[in-house]
Design goal:
It comes from Ornithinibacillus bavariensis. It is found in: Cell membrane. The chain has 22 helices and ten strands. It has about 575 residues and is an alpha/beta fold. The protein has two domains: about 325 residues, ABC transporter type 1, transmembrane domain (ABC transporter transmembrane region fold), CATH 1.20.1560.10; about 170 residues, P-loop containing nucleotide triphosphate hydrolases (Rossmann fold, 3-Layer(aba) Sandwich), CATH 3.40.50.300. Strand 7, helix 20 and strand 8 form a beta-alpha-beta unit. The longest helix is centred in the middle third of the chain and has 53 residues. The chain is elongated, with a radius of gyration of 35 Å.
């Protein structure tokens, strides 16, 4: 149960001064809190023996008020220090998580669903923070404060009465231990179910257009209700155990009260203790209720925190499949790119998605990559971005093996426009500035001209300031593609990768964008993957992929003379375009 504190020792060591101050202040406040009951007992004894004077009463009342003020001030200090530390832990862990997410490769996101990662970044972090705040409080109160109370009751009143009143404690320890084990298991299941529900909601929102188009609203609603019922049942299972803590504690505390009051009254009659001692003892017994409750709360909080911390640590401890080299080589510019017998297969598969790729690209060249769906075009780009491990053969940038160069440096060279454009829930301006944070409006309009988006921006209600909505829902497919193109253009990358990024625009717009590309990127390397072959006819070199292998390569003119797949596909597309025009 206390393993959670050991797992968080890195945090407590860093903030040991903060936590030392909070715990010491808490103990001092608890010690001060033990004095007023003795004052009450003393006053009652003075009343009983008719020795209470106005001066003595004034001293007792003033002392009581002073103690209350001091207790309040010290309590404020430990409360603020302790719980602000818990907030810092939550912030730190969340920052570690997002930093970890940004380093992860597609393999990681294939294993963990988005909804589950969201649950770990929200609910689980709250449980961990509660451990570092409320957990520490209950630990101190259920140990130090409880022992201070017991010592005060025993030494200042009666050990016989104290030990008799504490008979229920061992029973409580056994029951709380069983409750704690059940809480840990059930809370872990509940958090996992919550993560699955999050993922289902996310998918439903993202796919709302498809759901409506296929009239699947009722089925999706039923599916969601089934999942929420599962989450409900698992949380009810947690709540059932949680609900047993308080009644169990009340029964045991009530038993302590009964023993204390009954046996204490007998001791008063026997003149072993005074009436004031009995009153003080019962006040202390009342104060002991919280430390006894704190034992149950401590077990509850620590088990929840331990379960959540295990889930978060499982995520953070996941090692990235692709990592920076120990001794990276600095490469200033990309003068050439070489594929030497490069083969690759995705993790978990035995079939090669790329096989024996040989390609030499000089700086400033435009490379066209074409082929059937699933031929390996996107995979070729993914290994250039080092998204996956296990690349066989050699892929070199400026005669330096890719695996000897820092990931950040490789990706800083590349401007990538994927097949599925990602739009952030921000304005058009902010989406384009993602490629260059300090880009001016003049620069933005220039790249919008390159992407043939200027006329579209004039029609948007707030121009560059128009919010695109979640995932760019307010933009059409062609508009999203062109915003993504502008975002890549403004970066002015040494290597530009367009992965079927012109599929949603018409032929006329495509030809204008290609013309702008040829002018702007004369001395820079560009890769264009496309199904519409008109997008690559101007390329310096074109390769045709089939089942991950290069089956044809050359310029447009050379491939047209080969009478292979390229010529057949090009002529078919030209014929289709003529039929559309006619």
């Amino acid at each position: 149960m206390f393993q959670v504190f050991k797992k968080l020792d890195w945090f407590f060591k860093h903030y040991w001064k903060r936590y030392t101050f909070a715990i010491v202040s808490l103990i001092i406040a608890s010690a001060i809190g033990l004095i007023p009951p003795r004052l009450i007992g003393y006053a009652i004894d003075q009343i009983q023996f008719s020795t209470l004077t106005a001066k003595l009463l004034t001293i007792i009342v003033v002392g009581y008020v002073v103690l209350l003020v001091i207790h309040y001030c010290i309590s404020f200090l430990w409360d603020y220090t302790l719980f602000s530390g818990a907030v810092i832990l939550e912030r730190w862990t969340r920052s570690k998580l997002i930093d970890h997410f940004l380093k992860m490769t597609p393999t990681f996101y294939g294993k963990y669903k988005t909804g589950d990662l969201m649950a770990r970044s929200t609910n689980d972090l709250k449980a961990i923070a509660q451990t570092a705040g409320f957990g520490v409080l209950t630990l101190v109160d259920s140990t130090t404060f409880m022992f201070m109370l017991i010592a005060m009751m025993g030494f200042s009143i009666s050990w016989k009465l104290t030990l008799a009143a504490l008979i229920p404690l061992p029973i409580m320890a056994i029951i709380m231990n069983k409750y704690g084990a059940a809480i840990h298991a059930r809370f872990t299941d509940a958090q996992a179910a919550f993560g699955n529900m999050n993922n289902e909601v996310l998918e439903s929102i993202r796919g709302i257009r498809v759901i409506r188009a296929f009239v699947q609203e009722k089925q999706d609603k039923d599916r969601f209700e089934t999942m929420t019922e599962e989450v409900y049942q698992k949380n009810i299972a947690v709540a059932k155990i949680d609900a047993m803590f308080e009644p169990t504690m009340k029964i045991l505390v009530g038993l302590s009260y009964t023993i204390g009051l009954g046996y204490g009254t007998m001791l008063v009659f026997e003149n072993v203790i005074s009436l004031g001692d009995l009153v003080s003892f019962n006040v202390y017994l009342g104060m002991l209720i919280w430390p006894m409750f704190a034992v149950g709360e401590l077990i509850n909080v620590l088990q929840r925190g331990n379960a959540s911390l295990d889930r978060v640590n499982e995520t953070i401890n996941y090692k990235a499949d692709v990592q920076n080299p120990e001794n990276p080589v600095e490469v200033g510019h990309v003068d050439s790119i070489d594929f030497n017998n490069v083969s690759f297969s995705y993790p978990g598969t035995k079939i090669n998605q790329l096989e024996n790729i040989n390609l030499h690209i000089q700086k400033g060249q435009t490379i066209g990559i074409v082929g059937k769906t699933g031929s390996g075009k996107t995979t070729l780009f993914k290994i250039m971005l080092r998204q996956y491990p296990g690349v066989r053969g050699q892929l070199k940038f400026s005669n330096t093996d890719m695996e000897m160069i820092n990931l950040e440096q490789i990706r800083s060279w590349i401007g990538y426009v994927p097949q599925d454009q990602i739009m952030f829930s921000k304005s058009v301006r902010e989406n384009i500035q993602f490629g260059k944070n300090d880009a001016s409006d003049d620069e933005i309009f220039h790249v919008m001209e390159l992407a043939h988006f200027v006329e579209d921006i004039k029609q948007l209600p707030q121009g560059l300031g128009t919010m695109v909505g979640e995932s760019g829902v307010t933009l059409s497919g062609g508009q999203k593609q062109r915003v993504a193109l502008a975002r890549a253009f403004i970066k002015e990358p040494e290597i530009l990768i367009l992965d079927d990024s012109l599929s949603a625009v018409d032929g006329k717009t495509e030809s204008k964008i290609i013309e702008h590309l040829r002018k702007e990127r004369k001395n820079k390397t560009t890769f264009i993957a496309a199904h519409r072959l008109s997008a690559v006819t101007h390329a310096d070199h074109i390769i045709v992929l089939e089942d991950g292998k290069i089956v044809e390569e050359g310029t447009h003119e050379e491939l047209m003379q080969n009478a292979g797949w390229y010529k057949e596909q090009y002529e078919q597309q030209q014929l289709d375009d003529e039929e559309v025009i006619s």
